[in-house]
Amino acid sequence: MASLPIPEVEEIEAIYGLEGAVEATSRYQRLAAAFKEKYGQAPEIYARAPGRVNLIGEHIDYEGYGVLPMAIRQDTIVAIRRGGDKLVVANLEAEQYPEIEFGTDPAQALDVAKHTWANYFLSAYKGVFEHLQSKGIAAPSPVGLQVMVHGTVPLGSGLSSSAAIVCSSSLAIAAVLGVAGSLTKGDVSEFTCTAERHVGVTSGGMDQAISVMGMPGVAMLVEFNPVRATDVQLPAGSTFVIANSMAVSKKAETADRRYNLRVVECRLAAMMLAVALGKPPGEAAAVTTLKQVEPAIIDKYGPGAEAQDKAVRELLHEGVYMPEEVEGLLQRPLASIYEGNASALRVLGVVGPEGFRLRDRALHVYSEAGRVYGFRDVCKSDAAAEDKLSQLGSLMDASHASCAGLYECSCAELDALVGAARAAGALGARLTGAGWGGCTVSLVREADAPKFIAALREQYYAPLVAQGVVKEKDLGECLFASKPSSGAALMKLK
Ligand code: NG1
Ligand code: MG
After folding, report:
1. What is the count of structural domains for the chain?
2. Which of 181, 210, 284, 376 is geometrically suited to a Cys-Cys bond with 69, CB 3.0 to 4.6 A?
3. ipTM for the complex shown
4. Active-site entry in 61, 75, 207, 256
5. What does the buried/exposed string (b/e) look like for 271-284 if buried means 16 or more CB atoms within 10 Å of the residue's CB?
6. Ligand 1: residue whose CA is nearest its atom 2
């Protein structure tokens, strides 16, 4: 499946479904009109890519483990044409997202310290050229591009607005430069993941993969190295309700103390496990993911979640590891292990007495990886739908507990919202995406969804409306049931 070419779709209905088509059409029309007014001509082509909600499997994609997201209908659309001698990146919502210009040199550096929305476009631009170079495909000479973007995925909400803009921009750029024909979905999933790291977050590949490979009606088990996606049919009568905690997670801006710190902690945990399992320091220092040490754990402790949990508790000590302890065991400075890895070096530069909580992070990653396959197996099983729902709910609850307790990526607002969701009748509820703010996802019986949404409005959102944090009229964008939607596509409008 990963080797299918990117579809070029002419009909909006094919993507947005009958219900969404009218609204989508008017959005594309507004984008086209604003584009023509600004640049004097119509776009040559459009591309769109959706956000996603992760049902289970949090903070494990960068450790090499499979995750289970679905694409949502909210997306980013990009209109583009060749022209001028710069990259002019404008947004339909110009007041909120001011226009930014870049030169056309694909090798230009991206300023991580100056985070702007258009950095995501530039990361896509660099990514397209880097991909062509890595495949030995002759790159076209850089030309000026005129671009206009419109997104409906809420920012900083764990629904991957970032992947939506990086993936749609990449497709648009590749198409207008005439190289889209040589790309497969797998190529785009992989190079957009690498490209997004230019923005300064050392993310895994889940968001880009599901944004590119999502399919209507099914969630996907996304696995890595190489990236691939398998359909997961969700049980009949189930609905997933997304709710925004309204705490904004500024992931790129806080990366050194949150997201990128966790990525560093996981690798340190993997190296410490390798040392404890008897690997010589040089070999241990070369380990990069927790997945890589799993075979050695199984050799000694046997397979299964319990054995893995026992192993981690025996091999890693409680509490905090400081850099000196890790360096002593690896017999080399961390700066040498991370040479050339700018984001990890930034993390090491700011680490304080809170150090690294390696045992907790490893316990989360291994148990969460197991829950992903558990979730898939429940969906595939021939149990009664009602039993499936309650088992999936328990897995989601356990995932949230692990994210909050062991991985410390929740926050007061997310915990309160998860609590309110369970009180309102969710069969399971958890944070989704990186956490530290953003959204939760709740499993609800389809028939109960309206009642559930009304109860959550009352319990969680009414006070926020009263405080002026959110407007009543915008609640539909904060709290909604979502069906699995289709992945990225190039579009020519009729
Ligand atoms: P969000 O913050 O939801 O976009 C991030 C990472 C994912 C994954 C999740 C946690 C990016 C682009 N994505 O998602 O790869 O690690 O956190 O599971 O940073
Ligand atoms: Mg993101």
Report:
1. 2
2. 210
3. 0.96
4. 207
5. bbbbbbbebeeeeb
6. 434
